[in-house]
Write a structure and sequence with these properties.
With 213 residues, this protein is an all-alpha fold. The chain folds into 2 domains: 80 residues, Helix-hairpin-Helix base-excision DNA repair enzymes (C-terminal) (Endonuclease Iii, domain 2, Orthogonal Bundle), CATH 1.10.1670; 107 residues, Endonuclease III, domain 1, CATH 1.10.340. 57% of the residues lie in helices and 0% in strands. The radius of gyration is 18 Å and the shape is globular. The structure holds a DNA duplex (10 and 10 nucleotides).
Length: 213
DNA sequence: CTCCGGCGAG
DNA sequence: CTCGCTGGAG
């Protein structure tokens, strides 16, 4: 796949976007990314607003709230027991200065530090650092993973991430991350990909046929 | 590899 | 009804 050509076409399709985390507290951004794990954006937004309604927006508020109350707020997002536990863990971590410390480290080391926290994996760390630390990193979510495989860029997280970063300049990676996700949602879907109307079908290795990828 | 999970699309 | 969602842990 000619990634540069693909990205240039996506630029026409998705000119720009308003980051939802703009001016947002880094802790809340992390909370949002955790809630979004394997969860649709609509469900994520619902859970986030339920947290706000209950005033559960700071590390101290989350730490002092009953586990059950957090679980209830997160219920619409699914995986709510695990996520409530993760929020407790990152709240403790943030209050111990972990979050602040990570924001002062080089991106590679910040990533390692974050991934020591239970519930923060490579994708959550990558996306967080890209969002709030301006790290030129393309976090590979489920959409980008699927697209990367269909484009023949690799089969695992790191290889797809590296292949994309090799073709996309640092200052465009944040945009590309978002654009690829939008493209994945609208065209390169997991189920029933819309190859017939896809603006990239003529340069896609998969063309119109849809293998089980 | 399996589990966690409510929820919307088809 | 099934599948998959800006995943991660065990």
């Amino acid at each position: 796949m000619n990634v540069k050509e693909a990205i240039s076409r996506l630029a026409a399709l998705y000119p720009d976007f308003q980051p939802w985390w703009e001016g947002e507290d880094p802790f809340l951004v992390l909370v949002g990314i955790v809630i979004s794990q394997n969860t649709s954006s609509a469900s994520t937004r619902r859970a986030l607003s339920r947290l706000r309604e209950r005033g559960l927006t700071s590390p101290s508020a989350i730490l002092s709230a009953p586990q059950e109350e957090i679980e209830d707020a997160l219920r619409p997002a699914g995986l709510y027991r695990a996520k409530a536990r993760i929020l407790k863990d990152i709240a403790r971590w943030a209050m111990d200065g972990g979050l602040e410390r990570v924001l002062s480290l080089p991106h590679a080391r910040a990533r390692e530090e974050m991934m020591k926290v239970r519930g923060i994996g490579r994708k959550t760390a990558d996306v967080f650092l890209a969002f709030v630390a301006s790290a030129p990193i393309i976090g590979v979510d489920t959409h980008i993973m699927r697209i990367g495989r269909r484009w023949g860029l690799g089969t695992d997280y790191e290889s797809i991430k590296e292949a994309l970063e090799r073709e996309i300049p640092p200052e465009r990676r944040l945009w590309a991350h978002k654009a690829l996700i939008s493209f994945g949602r609208e065209y390169c879907r997991a189920r029933r990909p819309r190859c017939d109307v896809c603006p990239l079908s003529d340069i896609c290795p998969k063309r119109g046929i849809q293998p089980e990828l």
